[in-house]
UniProtKB/TrEMBL annotation, chains A, B:
PANTHER family: THIAMINE-MONOPHOSPHATE KINASE. The lineage of its organism: Bacteria, Pseudomonadati, Pseudomonadota, Alphaproteobacteria, Sphingomonadales. Catalyzes the ATP-dependent phosphorylation of thiamine-monophosphate (TMP) to form thiamine-pyrophosphate (TPP), the active form of vitamin B1. It catalyses: thiamine phosphate + ATP = thiamine diphosphate + ADP. ATP binds at G115, D116, R145, S208. Belongs to the thiamine-monophosphate kinase family. Mg(2+) 3 binds at D26, D70, D206. It comes from Sphingobium nicotianae. This is Thiamine-monophosphate kinase. It is an enzyme of class 2 (transferase). Keywords: ATP-binding, Kinase, Magnesium, Metal-binding, Nucleotide-binding, Thiamine biosynthesis, Transferase. Substrate binds at H49, D256, Y303. Residues 25-136 form the PurM-like N-terminal domain.
Length: 306, 306
């Protein structure tokens, strides 16, 4: 398959970091000097995490971005990654994917150092995995989900719902504003903000499955209750969906937002770019108050696992 | 899906290393003290790398073993791993897989510290990936494929062909001796030997695609020629296939052997367990001499990529 040889050549061209050994060895070798190594791994499956008609370039970008968003939430500086790529037999798609992936790697300073390529049986869905590796200096805290305390304020680093609205419109076969489609297809990890928050955060994670479900997970891990009092929407989201309670619940449960979710002490001035969305309390569970009124939680708090 | 919750609970039970953060965070955090981190990643696809009727336990074991074999070839001590698991919707299979995986992790001292689980569309083949992480003390060489020199002797750490013969018999629907099926389904990585060889090896890798193709790759990476003069067979292999030139060529091109392939200086006494199979020369390419006679190379030197 000449397409495959072409892909392998392109992967080698990407792998310029010495740790990669030119992808000519069976391993990558990462020297350490006492830093903390942060590892995260996310896979994307065609028909589950992306649409068959999503441009290959955006799938490559997004695979990097979703992993980088996990690093961002730990204050880690991206260093390298391992790619597990299932060859599709479609050289044009594979090349597009690599274009998008390599653009993301360049943008965020992450080097490809290894992985593998496998052939898939005819007709199988595309499956692509990335393991991202970041670094945090020794002694610097790596915020977990579990450090929030009663009284802490919960912030997000941007509006939610855009990606979900973009995806929903695509799934309905409707035209969608470019901003919403971009939010779904080419999210931007909040790396710089994550690094500046890591020193002060009691707890931090990214919103990948939905604001409500991820806030509930942080509260549960922290043995706290969380009351959500605000669902920040973008202007474009409001222009399409409005800002009814229903529209805000849709935005808070859609997922794919890749904004940071961070618990800070109440007396701490939040850095620029954070939006207050709730407060931790004693107890357990999640409650929702919008416009000063209690709102019944939806049955589905977000994208459930899988 | 209760099966899925069950699998996630079992994965958490496996993830006892502090680096795993109980799989309750989005990342793993590996502290370092100046060691070299060795990373390798191999995926297995149903119908490509394993048979649909291979017992799930053996698929779990083998996924760990093939990655550990890469660590063995670099003299690395296994430390941890990230699992990328595509849920199959078949709880019995998933549980069997985890049984086999956890047995391998326990046997070889590798801790599960992260990864992800994804749902697959109905009818999709099983796809499972593992990224294994090993450690080598600073200053200790990590042998590559490329350090062999003219005059070096090439050794393997065991006979080849058993796994390939076991797989071939299974594919033909014939009964196969248990030893051959075990060689195919539950290979053992040569970790201890790899660690003792790392200090003296000019080049080292494992035989995963076949003795001939992997020896040719080592020679090419080392800018040498290689002459193969011996194809070591097991007794059980000989009893089934004989030891004709044809039988030996089949054994040398089948792959899935997971023995070490190591280049040592000519004047170095090889440690116990190594079998001499050839010698590096000036020049390039691979030649084959069996029983003192030149043998024409087969068209296919081994399992080609994918």
């Amino acid at each position: 398959m000449s397409g495959e040889a072409d892909i392998l050549r392109r992967l080698r061209e990407l792998a310029t970091d010495p740790a990669a050994r030119g992808l000519l060895d069976d391993v990558a070798v990462v020297p350490t000097i006492g830093q903390q190594i942060i590892l995260t791994s996310d896979s994307m499956v065609e028909g589950v995490h992306f649409r068959s008609d999503d441009p290959a370039e955006t799938v490559g970008w997004k695979l990097a971005a979703v992993n980088l968003s996990d690093l961002a939430a730990k204050g880690a500086a991206p260093s390298s990654c391992m790619l597990n790529y299932a060859l599709t037999g479609d050289a044009r798609w594979d090349n597009g994917f690599l274009d998008g992936l390599s653009r993301a790697l360049r943008s965020f300073g992450m080097h490809l150092i290894g992985g593998d390529t496998v052939a898939m049986p005819e007709g199988a869905p595309r499956v692509i995995g990335l393991t991202a590796i970041g670094e945090v200096p020794n002694g610097q805290p790596v915020p977990s989900r579990s450090g929030a305390r009663p009284g802490d304020i919960l912030y997000v680093s941007g509006p939610v719902g855009d990606a979900g609205a973009g995806l929903a419109l695509l799934n309905e076969g409707k035209s969608a504003p470019a901003e919403l489609i971009r939010a779904y297809r080419v999210p931007t990890p909040h790396l710089t903000l994550g690094q500046s928050l890591a020193m002060m955060a009691h707890a931090m994670m990214d919103v990948s499955d939905g604001l409500l479900i991820d806030a509930a997970r942080m509260a549960a891990a922290s043995d706290c209750a969380i009351e959500i009092s605000h669902v920040p929407l973008s202007e474009i989201y409001e222009s399409v969906r409005g800002r009814t309670v229903e529209a805000r619940l849709a935005a808070a449960t859609a997922g794919d937002d890749y904004v940071l979710l961070v618990a800070l002490p109440k007396d701490r001035d939040p850095p620029h770019g954070l939006i207050e969305v709730g407060q931790f309390k004693r107890g357990e569970g999640i409650t929702l108050r919008l416009d000063g009124k209690a709102v019944k939680l939806p049955d589905r708090l977000g994208y459930e696992h899988g």
